[in-house]
Design a protein that fits this description.
Layout (H helix, E strand, L loop, with lengths): L6 E4 L2 E5 L10 E4 L2 H9 L6 H17 L6 H16 L6 H20 L6 H35 L5 E5 L6 H4 L5 H10 L3 E7 L6 H13 L3 E4 L4 H7 L2 E6 L3 E3 L4 E4 L2 H10 L4 E4 L5 E2 L16 H4 E2 L2 E2 L11 E4 L6 E4 L2 E3 L3 H8 L5
Parallel strand pairs: 4-5, 4-7, 5-6, 7-10, 8-11, 10-15
Antiparallel strand pairs: 1-2, 2-3, 8-9, 9-14, 12-13, 15-16
Helix pairs in contact: 1-2, 1-3, 2-3, 2-4, 2-5, 3-4, 4-5, 5-7, 9-10
Bound molecules: 5-S-methyl-1-O-phosphono-5-thio-D-ribulose.
């Protein structure tokens, strides 16, 4: 299945596709400094919950690789700074913290297992190599998760007709075939005739710039709509399902996703359109009882008053919460790589991820 690669580990560094320049230009940056990877996450050169998890994993491996530490203790101290820097980029998508936690744990295991030797340089080289292998494994796991989500989700899609999404939960957002768009890709591959309704998703325009581009590249039929057309199309447009990604899912199924998702979910319910969330287990945060505890990123009002550097409003204060929370009651099912969870989510999510918190 053809799709674009937003991030890759290469011998020369971490290669990231610049999502700020899409769809006009396809530009890749090669990063050799983990701090620049952190900046790329913060500035949304790479974005989407699973993809920023992969970026944090590769950033951590990159930081370790370029460390000049000569002892294990020096490397440990540096690695703490590296992972802290990567953690202080974006607050909502839990995949980022999932990846960082995993890397800290892996580092501790490797450091603990390192046989006390007279050759600390060899010990450090081993740890560096193992961290690169771990980053590649995280990437490969994301790809496998997307394929499994796609397989489970495709069954839930209409055989023919329209499917609405929001934002970009595609290859650009995961490093695989996408979560929501993976479901759509697999449904199309299995012979369903689907047209995707793509809300443009102001202010960053992930729908218009990224989802429309990705689907168009793949030859999947789509219609781009502005965000204020959502209600109209859910009421009159023959939409058979809505499928979106997620940035963090609380234990009760409440789901943070791109701003606008909550409104779509309510309009979907009003019009009897099933509303699906597609996300990997790494997006679950079972430590939070409900969505009220999910931190919502506030971004700059400049991103609302300007489009591509052009003023579209006077310099007034503009609100910019980057995410909203969809209450669990609007969600028909949550599609994960381990299967499809239905209400009551507090039970079904825990059953899918018994040791996850
Ligand atoms: O601000 P973004 O572009 O990082 O937000 C992305 C989304 O809200 C996606 O829907 C979510 O991360 C799921 S991506 C598979």
């Amino acid at each position: 299945m053809h799709h674009v690669e937003p991030i890759e580990w290469k011998p020369e560094g971490v290669v990231i596709l610049d999502q700020l320049r899409l769809p006009g230009e396809v530009v890749y940056h090669t990063y050799t400094d983990y701090r620049h990877v952190a900046r790329a996450i913060k500035d949304m050169i790479i974005r989407g919950a699973p993809a920023i998890g992969v970026a944090a994993a590769m950033g951590a491996a990159l930081g370790a690789q370029h460390s000049k530490a000569e002892t294990l203790d020096e490397l440990r101290a540096e690695f703490a700074v590296i992972t802290d820097t990567l953690a202080k980029t974006r607050p909502t998508a839990v995949d980022l913290f999932w990846a960082i936690k995993r890397f800290r744990r892996r580092f501790d295991e490797l450091a603990h297992d390192a046989a006390p030797s007279s050759d600390p340089a060899a010990e450090i080289a081993n740890i560096k190599a193992a961290l690169i292998a771990e980053a590649l494994l995280v990437h490969e796991e994301r790809r496998a998760a997307d394929r499994a989500i796609g397989k489970f989700g495709a069954e839930l899609m209409p055989h023919t007709g329209r499917v609405m999404t929001q934002c970009n939960a595609g290859a650009l957002a995961t490093g695989g075939i996408g979560t929501a768009l993976g479901v759509i890709r697999m449904a199309v591959d299995s012979g369903r005739t689907i047209e995707v309704l793509v809300p443009e998703t102001r202010p960053y325009l992930q729908g218009a710039r990224l989802t429309a581009w990705e689907l168009h590249q793949d030859g999947i039929p789509l219609t781009l709509i502005t965000d204020n057309m959502v209600g109209h199309f859910l009421r009159t447009g023959g939409v058979g399902a809505v499928v979106v990604g997620a940035d963090r899912i609380a234990a009760n199924g409440d789901t943070a996703n791109k701003i606008g998702t909550y409104g779509i979910s309510v309009l979907a319910r009003e019009n009897n359109v099933p509303f699906y969330v597609a996300a990997p287990i790494s997006t679950l945060d079972l430590s939070l009882a409900t969505g009220d505890a999910i931190p919502i990123e506030e971004r700059s009002s400049h991103e609302v008053t300007h489009i591509a550097g052009v003023h579209i409003a006077p310099d007034v204060h503009a609100a910019h919460p980057a995410f909203d929370v969809t209450p669990n009651r609007y969600i028909t099912a949550i599609i994960t790589e381990r299967g499809v969870a239905k209400p009551p989510y507090t039970e079904t999510l825990r059953a899918l991820a018994p040791s996850h918190h």
